[in-house]
Amino acid sequence: MFASLSDRLSATFKSLRGKGRLTEADISTTVSEIRRALLDADVAVPAVRAFTAAVRERAGSAEVSQALNPSQQIVKIVHEQLVEILGGDSRELTFAKRPPTVIMLAGLQGAGKTTLAGKLGAWLKEQGHTPLLVASDLQRPNAVNQLEVVGERAGVHVWAPERGNGVGDPIQVARSGVEHAREKFYDVVVVDTAGRLGVDAEMMQQAADIRDAVSPDETLFVLDAMIGQDAVTTAQAFADGVGFTGVVLSKLDGDARGGAALSVRTVTGAPVLFASTGEKLGDFERFHPDRMASRILD
Ligand code: GDP
Q1: Is the pLDDT assigned to residue 256 strictly greater than 80?
Q2: Is the CB of 268 within 6 Å of ligand 1?
Q3: Best label site of 81, 128, 195, 273, fewest CB within 10 Å?
Q4: Cα–ligand 1 centroid distance for 239 (angstroms)
Q5: pLDDT at 166 over 70
Q6: Confidence check: pLDDT of 64 > 70
Q7: Cβ(285) to ligand 1 under 6 A?
Q8: How would you label 114-138 residue by residue, b for 16+ Cβ within 10 Å and e otherwise?
Q9: Residue 222 to residue 149: CA distance in whole angstroms
Q10: Which residues pair with 4 in a beta bridge?
Q11: Do the annotations mark residue 169 as ligand-binding?
């Protein structure tokens, strides 16, 4: 992840080494190279525009420190703008004043929602919570079973529809799951929902209906970082169709070029809360913009 963007940026910075001060021309060339590197990394155009405008303005302004050489100055500005575009400060999960807190997961099929439900369950348990996972993905034949498997692995209970009752109603399962949590004193409910391979009106309506039935405290949009430029249109469609309060970037362990991570905040306004970095339960971390920025520039 980010390997090629990192290489491109360090090459750009290297070309500034040994310069005594930055001329207008140096700044222009550097900003163009940064723009190209970001576009090649699949970063969305509005995000690239905001990023390069900020770098250009700051590099040309009086804030530039005398204590740093031009290359260091640009690295510092780019680092700070990367933090900014990645969302600034990291945000904590919001818990309801009166439990249970309801966290709904939304996203395309294959984005990593069911895997994430297990990871979140394990993580919440570690934090001293008593989570319940709710299987409202009744679209994918094996999804309920998969959630039960990850739940067992995480040592977290799973609320699933009764077997043998036909297809079942995902909205009813979500509602009864939250009710069950309230009765049995689970303090966080994670609702797994169905996705489709592409954005689909029926799926979006179902997710919106589940949202209306359980009034989530957090709706987390799970975004596969590997889907490149499509990430932005998908995120936008979910923002319009369901709405979400936060983003989880999944498959950050892959060799994606990083565009999704760098665009999603600018495009949707929602912060990235967590990162999924593999298939195992422990491959999961809070998302820290400053650490991610350092990883890109290292
Ligand atoms: P869902 O359809 O959104 O519920 O997606 P799943 O949770 O079933 O995940 C789809 C596939 O991606 C599965 O094979 C997962 O093991 C895999 N997967 C999920 N998260 C990650 C991740 O962070 N990294 C990698 N490498 N694979 C992941």
Answers
A1: no
A2: no
A3: 128
A4: 21
A5: no
A6: no
A7: no
A8: bbbbbbbbbbbeeeebbbbbbbbbb
A9: 20
A10: none
A11: no
Token digits of residue 236: 């936008």
Q: What is the pLDDT of residue 65?
A: 67
Q: What would the two tokens of residue 160 be?
A: 């699933």
Cβ atoms of residues 257 and 283 within 8 Å: no
Nearest Cα to 176, choosing from 97, 94, 102?
Answer: 102
- Regarding the beta carbon of 168 and ligand 1, being less than 6 Å apart is answered no
For atom 25 of ligand 1, which residue has the closest CA? 278
285: left (phi over 0), alpha (psi -120 to 50) or beta: beta
Q: Is 73 annotated for ligand binding?
A: no
Q: What is the pTM of this model?
A: 0.93
278 in a labelled binding site: no
Task: Mention every residue, 6+ apart, whose C-beta is less than 8 A from residue 191.
Answer: 102, 103, 104, 105, 134, 136, 174, 177, 178, 210, 214, 216
CA 67 to chain centre: 36
pLDDT in tens, 229-255: 888 899 999 999 999 999 999 999 887
Q: Quick one: average pLDDT of 140-166?
A: 88
| Whole-complex ipTM | 0.99
- Looking at residue 91, its pLDDT comes to 87
d(CA 222, CA 235): 9
The answer on pLDDT for 1 being more than 60 is yes
Residue 112 beta carbon below 6 angstroms from any ligand 1 atom: yes
Distance, CA 47 to ligand 1 centroid (Å)? Answer: 27
Query: Cα of 123 to ligand 1 centre, how many Å?
Result: 17
